[in-house]
Specification:
Helix content is 39%, strand content 23%. It is an alpha+beta fold and 256 residues long. The strands form 3 sheets. A 5-stranded mixed β-sheet has the order 1-2-4-6-5. Strands 8-10-9 form a 3-stranded antiparallel β-sheet. It has a two-stranded antiparallel ribbon with strand order 3-7.
């Protein structure tokens, strides 16, 4: 089994039915593309959750970033390439082109992850982060099974994954976008130099950014905050409650 990817198209760019919602962040419009979910999935984070987080992070860190995608992964993708979120430095999403942070829908019943005991240091650190956020952890001779409710996934996506992916973007801004603005003829060189940074180093930067952001916002009492699911807000934005609320699933058709 493989994830199909037509030539010239990234698989995350192929959207089903979706709605574009616009908020303001960092003094400018910011867009959230919400893809309709299947009958067995929901988006843990709401548009208003995302808007609140955007209002809390430093405006400078959002330079040239104007898009978040709440995406419904295909079943095959959930089996072969399950993730909480992604950053794409350049994408063609709906009517927008540019960088995008993606947060993926999950099963409405929650998520269970299996981890082996045979892990390299980076994976071991990630396992410890996940154990801290999991509702329940089962251990066996083979490894670990971590259980997450939708609320636990929301906490992880909103307060860890989102700032982690934003950290990757801040790293890119510092290494490529801002230096190339002063010397446009160096963009290709700067881009290649960034791509040459070892993955472990890029991940370490994003983890530091995420940890620092979360700790700073916690110290100010800004996070964590309760899930923002407001019927009037959903109505104004033309969104389906069933894409965010498992109890409303029977009232809406399944996305194709």
């Amino acid at each position: 089994m493989v994830i199909p990817s037509p030539r010239g198209e990234w698989f995350c760019e192929r959207l089903g039915r979706h709605t574009v919602v616009t908020r303001r962040a960092a003094g400018r419009p910011f867009h959230v593309v919400v893809e309709q979910t299947r009958a067995d999935c929901i988006h843990p984070c709401t548009v208003d959750d995302i808007a609140r987080m955007l209002s809390l992070v430093p405006a400078r860190d959002l330079d040239k970033l104007e898009l978040v995608l709440l995406r419904q992964p295909k079943r095959k993708e959930q089996i072969l390439s399950p993730v909480w979120g992604r950053l794409r430095y350049a994408a063609d999403i709906a009517k927008f082109q540019g960088p995008v942070i993606i947060l993926e829908a999950v099963a409405a019943s929650g998520v269970a992850l299996n981890w082996s005991r045979k892990l390299d240091p980076g994976d071991q650190e990630e396992l410890e982060r996940l154990r801290a956020d999991a509702d329940r952890v089962e251990e066996s001779k083979r490894g670990y099974r971590l259980h997450f409710s939708v609320d636990a996934v929301r906490y992880l996506q909103l307060f860890r994954t989102f700032p982690h992916e934003l950290g990757h973007w801040v790293h890119y801004l510092d290494r490529v976008e801002r230096p190339s603005a002063l010397a446009p003829d160096r963009w290709d060189t700067l881009q290649e130099a960034y791509k040459a940074i070892p993955k472990q180093e890029r991940e370490a930067f994003a983890h530091r950014y995420s940890d620092h952001t979360k700790q700073a916002l916690e110290a100010m009492g800004h996070v964590p905050f309760p899930r923002i699911l407001d019927a009037r807000s959903l109505g104004r934005d033309g969104l389906r409650r069933g894409d965010f609320d498992a109890t409303a699933k029977k009232a809406v058709p399944e996305a194709e």
